[in-house]
Write a structure and sequence with these properties.
- The chain is mainly alpha-helical and about 290 residues long.
- It has one domain (about 20-90, about 100-290).
- The chain is built from 15 helices and 2 strands.
- Strands 1-2 form a two-stranded antiparallel sheet.
- Strand 1 and strand 2 form a beta hairpin.
Length: about 290
């Protein structure tokens, strides 16, 4: 019996992970309509957009740290969605479990991660403040630093290693995460009071809009920064972000002490080049695809 349950669980997970882009968009549209109905019936100060983003994000990214960075959805929202699914024979809840989905461009995106990054940006009310870097490119770059800790070489050699073996290729900053980080602010910037995330995402990936993702990402993330200055500005933004400093401390790459983990430029000596290599490789990716 236990073996049968494990097989059924495996098949269920595989079914979620193999959802098509069209199916994901259709289910997202249904979910958005349910949450809109929930907001019209309940008293909540959260905006409709924030309710949608937070609810989807919580399907994968939970815990106190994420609650701080993205807020929490109302305790009865999930039950409301479950009841709507049961009543109307839909599967809107599954949206918050979608991970890698193949886009019409044949690229793959981490669907929930896309919404998690948008959640952090909107909750912080700015793409250049708050937790926006931490939940997106900055946090994934810190994870990239963790991945390359064992690599050796000069700064230039480490940049080359990151570029050819890690960034957008494997590890914690793989291709699905990279696309999610780039597209999240661009898609969120298109949201207004009349359109839906389902409409925006469908149009974005089925047209040629996504081809300008890097240019639009740079405009939103590093406004007024010249291409040749992206390395410097990206590193400055990364190294001076308190929340990223704390994440690096958690990964064991910063000096310890009472305040050591929380101060800029306090990276352990042996990881200084690794830190720069991770950020520089990301900046170089932006520059070369601008």
């Amino acid at each position: 019996m236990k073996a049968i349950k494990l097989v059924l669980l495996y098949l269920f997970i595989q079914n979620i992970n193999s959802v098509t882009f069209s199916e994901a968009i259709d289910n997202l549209a249904i979910l958005e309509s349910y949450i809109k109905e929930y907001k019209s019936e309940k008293t909540t100060s959260s905006s409709l957009n924030l309710l949608i983003l937070c609810y989807i994000r919580e399907g994968v990214y939970t815990g106190s740290e994420w609650s701080i960075a993205g807020g929490s959805s109302p305790s009865d929202l999930d039950k409301f969605i479950q009841n709507k699914d049961k009543e109307l024979n839909t599967t809107a809840q599954q949206v918050r479990k979608y991970r890698e989905i193949e886009l019409p461009s044949k690229e793959k995106i981490d669907f929930v991660h896309l919404f998690a990054v948008m959640n952090g940006i909107l909750y912080g009310e700015s793409y250049t403040d708050g937790y926006s870097s931490l939940v997106g490119w900055g946090g994934d770059t810190a994870q990239l630093l963790q991945d390359i800790k064992a690599e050796t070489g000069t700064l230039d050699e480490l940049v080359d290693i990151v570029t050819t073996k890690y960034l957008g290729i494997k590890g914690q900053f793989g291709p699905a995460d990279l696309i999610s980080d780039l597209d999240a602010p661009v898609i969120l910037n298109k949201k207004n009071n009349t359109n839906t995330f389902a409409e925006i995402i469908k149009n974005y990936y089925k047209s040629d809009e996504y081809k300008d993702r890097v240019k639009e990402f740079v405009k939103l993330t590093f406004p007024k920064v010249e291409k040749d200055d992206l390395r410097k500005q990206a590193f400055k933004r990364y190294d001076n972000d308190l929340y990223i400093n704390i994440l690096e401390c958690k990964y064991g790459v910063r000096e310890s002490g009472l305040l050591g983990c929380y101060l800029p430029d306090n990276i352990m000596t042996k990881y200084q080049n690794h830190q720069k290599a991770a950020v520089y490789a990301f900046a170089d990716y932006l520059t070369s695809n601008y």
